[in-house]
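Quick sanity check, Cytochrome d ubiquinol oxidase subunit II:
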Amino acid sequence: MELTTLWFLIVGVLLIGYFVLDGFDYGVGMSLPFLGRDDTDRRLIINTIGPVWDLNETWLIVAGAALFAAFPEWYATMFSGFYLALLLILVALILRGVSFEYRHQGKGEQWTRWFDQFIFWGSALPPLLWGVAFANLAQGLPISLLPQGGWIYEGTLLTLLNPYGLLGGLVMLLICFAHGLVFISLKTLGDMRQRARRLATKVGIAAIVAGAGFLIWTILMHRDHEMLWLIVLCAAVAAIGLIGGFIANLAGREGWAFTGNAVAITFALLTIFMALFPYLMYSTIDPAFSMSIEGAASSQKTLELMTWVAGFTMPLVLAYQAWTYWVFRKRLTREAIPAGAH
């Protein structure tokens, strides 16, 4: 396998890891106004992700760094073209992180209520905008070649807000919401567990309907793709994972439901990556302007060095993350939330 293809896969794995792990963080944050009947409920919900949410976000940092180092042209074109959308995501992530740390400072009910709103919107906006961005990558973007070399995005933020892109955003939002609700039921006992399961059922139905429409639209859009069979296979596994997670949640098997949602997110993103391959960005202006993996990659020596570093560090990161989840595996209850605690 060529190093350019290998690093396309590595960046994909890092992004998938981010959406699987931080995806349920987003869902937990979105659940606050729906499951939080009082402040103790809301603190219980937040505490389900308290030890891990910042660790989960490091996957995005690593993915961005890998993208910058392995495919600098892709990084530059995408981050300049999606500038406003990415800025909104960054602001939302900052507000969410600050709110986790400051909501419990005891400044009064209004203070806490404001930060709970920031947590909700800071959790809802990123998956929506990420879904819009990835859907547009799969659909193609108005990019052209610069005379001096490189690519430039010719559209605006409104260009991204097309029907297919918005459907992709809605699907990502709903799947993350359901993923987070299942995680809450996996991490809690008592009434909170039951209410999270019931809400996950309702959200899961909406996610299945929207996800089916998005996957079918994606397949029809790429019906002439030389790797259509692989696109269809990934889409089918994503659908099976989402439906299987829904059924497992109905049966009260939260572990299997969480696994099903993780599979759905993984293969939904793989569907998009397979639809892209062998390009990183497909031009809707002229196919000749499309950004290929080879054309946007760093030098061979750079990729070789990065491969050695990744081979050494990735197992350590995965081991540390697995250990963290094992340490904080215990379920939580309302009774475990002392007065005045976070």
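Posting the structure with no commentary besides this: The chain has 14 helices and four strands.
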